[in-house]
Amino acid sequence: MPAFAYADAATPIRDDLAAAHRAYWDELARPGAWWSGVARVAIAQQVRAAWSCSLCAARKQALSPAMVEGEHEPAGALAAPVVDAIHRITTDASRLSKGWFDGVLAAGLDDASYVEMVGVVTSVVSIDAFHDALALPREPLPEPVPGAPSRLRPSTAVQGPAWVPWIPGDRAAGAEADLYPAASRTAHVYMALSLVPDAVRAMGRLSQAHYVGLALVASPGACEPGRALDRTQMELIAGRVSARNECFY
Amino acid sequence: MLLRASGETRGDTVDLQAVTDDEARSGVAHGEALTRFADAIVDADPDPIRAARERVAREMGEHAVVDAAAVAANFQRMVRIADATGIPLDKPVAIFSADLREDLGIDRFGAAANTPRVGPLLRLLGRLGQPLLRPIMRLYAREG
Questions:
Q1: Contact present, A131 and B69 (Cβ < 8 Å)
Q2: B87–A217: do the CB atoms touch at under 8 Å?
Q3: What interface predicted TM-score (ipTM) does this complex get?
Q4: How many domains, in total, are found in chain B?
């Protein structure tokens, strides 16, 4: 049976959702720009481990996460600072700070590897959240595909106001010309992962199936065809999820 | 801002307090069922998720359950991307949402530190420009 077959789902799942999830799982297993397939799947494993990590639970309850020291469980094959970053982004993202990010870089993770890791973490969180919401079993993680990362860093990336460098909307050209919706200004959240262009592309594909395509985001009232919710209902959910997560953006 | 603008596009008046206030009524069709489902998904507690999912199914049907789960899951991703990369609010959004953020208590969130404070003049401009929000968003969407 292919991944994300949803054959046992009590509620029929749209084909485009299944296809988007399957495409992401295929991409997850392959070498990325900065991580091997083995490492990308290991990152996904840590996302799942974070939800039952006792250190993360204790930190979540603490006034400041920095007040609680310890080691995450299980440590696995990834370096400790990487595991810590994965767990923090998964379970306590609203309390991340520039100082924390600088500490991650000082511990030896470069900015592009960090961005790719964020892309993997957030995609796995999202796909798992969809399954949990519908009481579907989480999809087994894919078998990693051997190979080396491409190590392609876009030459058009510059340091902007975010913690990480990005490709501004007016610099997305050449191999990155497809990165942003052609007919709209480029919102910061689209540019956030652009140091790893494939992470933006993956974000766009998942957004189109889960919500609306990036080209429609800034058009109030616009929806993908065949959806059971209108855009106002979608935005209410979006706002509520953002507020509940204490996300300022 | 997208919630307000999409409501206006449909001719609805949306109470944005419903984003942060459990007692507020959004004015959105089936809004309470959807917010309860969204809350349960964020809290990741299976029993409340089941109860909220069943309510959405009763009120809106099975396809709405799937779409609501998909939207909530999408924003479980997007909020983490924003928080993990330290992006500031886009400037027009920062200006036009300054009062709203204060009203809703969003300015107290930790990641507010990533966005420069909107000065009094720009804040006034944002306040005066509220009636122009929809046309401005339309321009924002269409102009490169």
A1: no
A2: no
A3: 0.96
A4: 1
